[in-house]
């Protein structure tokens, strides 16, 4: 069976070169006589793997020295709680609600303190990103946003001006899709299962001065979830997801060798713009995200009826095109075009869309 044209929103395509390398090292990692999965996380060989993964990530993202990099578990979802638990020192934060994921994060934060919705685009069915209408209250602990909304296919192309208030961003579905200026954020987190590796790790990049001596909520915070503790233990307070970090490290090298994040950005916009261009002229399919808010990764659209959406998904499978069903909260269709989705997958999808449209016209 040839490799599928995989448009899944995550877990999603991993570069073939990375998979081949991991396969070649499966039974004997560099003369250790075992796979990385079988290796103690306290071994020298493993320490070298996690150190190299962090160093490579720091290079490709140009992460300043005053930021810590943490490899955590519990998915991006656990960070919805970890962020307020660690950072909500005045029990008051602001949230920009641009869709499914920031709404969930906001609801989670409401458990721990006052979480104000500073702007929301729910009234337009999250077809765009909401922007701040007034200056941010400088007494807030942080302002939170999800920079790329995976379900609705929208993205902040410019960051809001939060003055001196730290910006916290869920970058999950645009992490490593393009360069970001890390110094603009107080904290970034991302589930790795889109662009960075297999599911099971969440990367947190946090500015030193936000760590504090103890988490904002004090001793009730699960020890594991304390950012300072995790930073002081090099993400090894307990057993980390060793295999996942190893594969992430390989993906980071693949990105570096493929031209880094500038090259990723160029390739990704080229891919999604071909789809947006098609959708903008199509008489059958409609794009769901407003032009200025469109995502670099997740292209959302629909056919005129749920039945046609379903027929499109079924026909796609016959052409080895998978993962294009929309998220269950929105329905419709979605093509997620992460780094490891090759241009030829876009060729295949576009050819299929045109064929489908011609038979339904
Ligand atoms: N944030 C965003 C932007 C996401 O796309 C997702 C999942 N796709 C999540 C958070 C939740 O991630 P996880 O399943 O890793 O908890």
Automatic annotation (TrEMBL):
Its EC number is 2.6.1.52. Binds 1 pyridoxal phosphate per subunit. InterPro entries: Aminotrans_V_dom, Pser_aminoTfrase, PyrdxlP-dep_Trfase, PyrdxlP-dep_Trfase_major, PyrdxlP-dep_Trfase_small. The modification N6-(pyridoxal phosphate)lysine is found at residue 194. It catalyses: 4-(phosphooxy)-L-threonine + 2-oxoglutarate = (R)-3-hydroxy-2-oxo-4-phosphooxybutanoate + L-glutamate; O-phospho-L-serine + 2-oxoglutarate = 3-phosphooxypyruvate + L-glutamate. Its cofactor is pyridoxal 5'-phosphate. It is found in: Cytoplasm. One of its GO terms (molecular function) is transaminase activity. It is an enzyme of class 2 (transferase). The keyword Ribonucleoprotein does not apply. Residues 5-349 form the Aminotransferase class V domain. Pathway: Cofactor biosynthesis; pyridoxine 5'-phosphate biosynthesis; pyridoxine 5'-phosphate from D-erythrose 4-phosphate: step 3/5; Amino-acid biosynthesis; L-serine biosynthesis; L-serine from 3-phospho-D-glycerate: step 2/3. Its main location: cytoplasm. NCBIfam families: PRK05355.1. Homodimer. This is Phosphoserine aminotransferase. It comes from Parafannyhessea umbonata.
């Amino acid at each position: 069976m040839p490799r599928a044209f995989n448009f899944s929103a995550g877990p999603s395509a991993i570069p073939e070169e990375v998979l081949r390398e991991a396969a070649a090292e499966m039974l004997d990692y560099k003369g250790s006589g075992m796979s990385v999965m079988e290796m103690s996380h306290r071994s020298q060989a493993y320490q070298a793997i996690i150190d190299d993964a962090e160093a490579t990530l720091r290079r490709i993202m140009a992460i300043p020295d005053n930021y810590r990099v943490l490899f955590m578990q519990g998915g991006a979802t656990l960070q919805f709680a970890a962020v307020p638990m660690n950072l909500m020192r005045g029990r008051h934060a602001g949230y920009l609600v641009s869709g499914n994921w920031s709404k969930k994060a906001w609801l989670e934060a409401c458990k721990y303190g006052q979480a104000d919705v500073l702007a929301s685009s729910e009234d337009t069915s999250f077809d765009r990103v909401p922007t701040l209408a007034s200056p941010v209250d400088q007494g807030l602990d942080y302002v939170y946003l999800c920079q790329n909304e995976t379900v609705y296919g929208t993205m902040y192309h410019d960051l809001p001006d939060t003055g001196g208030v730290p910006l916290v961003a869920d970058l999950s579905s645009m992490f490593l899709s393009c360069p970001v200026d890390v110094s603009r954020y107080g904290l970034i987190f991302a589930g790795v299962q889109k662009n960075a590796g297999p599911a099971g790790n969440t990367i947190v990049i946090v500015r030193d001065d936000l760590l504090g001596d103890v988490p904002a909520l004090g001793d009730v915070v699960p020890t594991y979830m304390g950012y300072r503790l995790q930073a002081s233990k090099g993400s090894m307070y307990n057993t980390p997801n060793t295999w996942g970090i190893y594969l992430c490290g390989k993906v980071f090298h693949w990105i570096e060798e493929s031209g880094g994040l500038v090259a990723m950005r160029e390739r990704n916009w080229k891919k999604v713009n071909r789809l947006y261009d098609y959708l903008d002229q199509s008489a059958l399919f409609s794009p769901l995200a407003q032009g200025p808010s469109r995502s670099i990764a997740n292209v959302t659209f629909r056919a005129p009826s749920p039945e046609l959406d379903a027929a499109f998904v079924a026909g796609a499978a016959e052409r080895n095109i998978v993962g294009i069903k929309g998220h269950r909260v929105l329905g419709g269709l979605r093509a997620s075009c992460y780094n490891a989705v090759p241009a030829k997958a876009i060729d295949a999808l576009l050819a299929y869309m045109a064929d489908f449209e011609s038979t339904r016209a």
